[in-house]
Amino acid sequence: MKEKTRFGALGAVLAAAGSAVGLGNIWKFPYMTGENGGGAFLLIYLVCILLFGIPILSAEFYAGRRGYGRWRWLEPAALLSATIFCGFYFVITGWCFHYLILSITGATSALSPAALSEVFGGVTSEVVMPCLCIVLAVSITALITVAGIKSGIERASKILMPLLFIILIALIIYGLTLPGHREGLRFLFAPDFSKITPTLIINALGQCFFTLSLGMAVMANYASFMEPSQNLTRTAVHVAGLDTIVAILAGLAIFPAVFSLGIDPTQGPELVFVTLPSAFNHIAGGYWLQILFFLLMVIAAVTTTISIVQTQTDWLETHTRLSRRWATFIAAFTDLLLALFCSLSLTNSCADYLTIAGMSIYDAADWLVSKILFPAGGLLFSLYVGWICDPADVVNELSLGGHRAIGKTLLVLIRYVIPLVLILIVIFGFLG
Ligand code: PFF
User: For the chain, how big is the Rg over CA atoms in Å?
Assistant: First the structure.
């Protein structure tokens, strides 16, 4: 049998962190924090990462290393979720490419916030440009994925992830020189405990799943390419740590500018597409900062989309006789079609008939993924590792060096606590 190509130790962390760090950190985290009261959301989100994120990520890594045994259906089921998610995700990735092009051509400079809001409306509801941008995003993703684990994904992650950090730090330094930046820092770091509600907690948990790429077999796939000597829990902690640092850095890059310009932080998904360009338009050197920011979004999005296409490709390669090239092509083409449908469902010309249950296909995919598929995927991985796999082996693999207490604590969380909470979340998702 051919020897399996594997990630190096650092490559494994960077590739998994590349999957985790994405639009979830730079687009979704800031607007969720903005909508859910700032510091209170950050606090609960951090608790969710510790109590749910790291244990489920470790469980997924374990499933990837050991395989799915009698639960062979779990991987294709999770991949189906990943494929629906990918259709939705490529739409937003397309917006980022679109905004990168707009900022390079200067089309968003010197516009008022109202005009920028119109630009966003255009970007999301036009037919041609969004579709072309999706084709561009899918093609770049496929080209990196087809080159394979070492020369494609690991190499791209080793270049793009440090670049992402450098761009973020540059943006933060700039934001901190703005007058009034302190209010932004206070908003992000000083929790107002009265803002903590059940909805905030469910939103923070949803964000934790989204940001750590949980429940979709993607992290499990990456773990199957890690060396047997790579410690799974340590890797999970490093990946969750890097992901959390990037989310906080994104908050630090965005909120000082938002507050310093008196912009409302509770705008929702528009926050980084409308308010940030307005902020940049007020700042000296804003033209370059805007390009840097959207480049950052594009890099973060692409290191994420390659992880999904890689998982689909690997499944096709293993379960059919397709070559890597054909497998990547079929995976990417399927994602492309789904993304085009999602994107077209937002346009005026198709909005009436591209609907499911009275929602646009885009909104339906968003609802299904965030309310049902993420928690259901996390639940299934926890049940598989907690109840089906050999508990002694799980504790062994999830212990940190000689510290078996860590493996044991993780097993208790994965076996009892997490499934109970997630069953409730899935039921609430269906009801509400
Ligand atoms: N973690 C990614 C982000 O924060 O943007 C999103 C994601 C990727 C979720 C891959 C799920 C997944 F399987």
Answer: 21
The SS3 call for residue 360 is strand
Query: What are the residue ranges of helices labelled H in 9-73?
Result: 9-20, 23, 29-35, 39-48, 54-66
CB count within 10 Å of CB 318 equals 11
pLDDT in tens, 49-77: 999 999 999 999 999 999 999 999 999 99
Q: How far is the CA of 219 from the centre of ligand 1 (A)?
A: 10
Q: Which residues line ligand 1 (CB under 6 A)?
A: 19-20, 22-25, 82, 85, 210-211, 213, 216, 218, 304, 307-308
Show the tokens assigned to 359.
């929602």
Token digits of residue 44: 């609960």
Q: Which of 80, 85, 303, 366 to mutate to test the pocket of ligand 1 (most atoms within 8 A of CB)?
A: 85
Query: In the chain, what is the straight-line distance between the N-terminal and C-terminal CA atoms, in Å?
Result: 50
- 381 token code pair: 């991985």
pTM for this prediction: 0.93
According to DSSP, the β-strands at 355-356 and 359-360 are antiparallel
Q: Which amino acid is at 411?
A: L
Out of 90, 95, 213, mutate this one to test ligand 1's pocket (max ligand atoms within 8 Å of CB): namely 213
Of 402, 301, 241, 268, the residue nearest 97 (C-alpha): 301
Query: Which of 57-61, 103-107, 122-126, 362-366 is most confident?
Result: 57-61
Q: Output the CA torsion sign for 323, 21, 136, 341.
A: positive
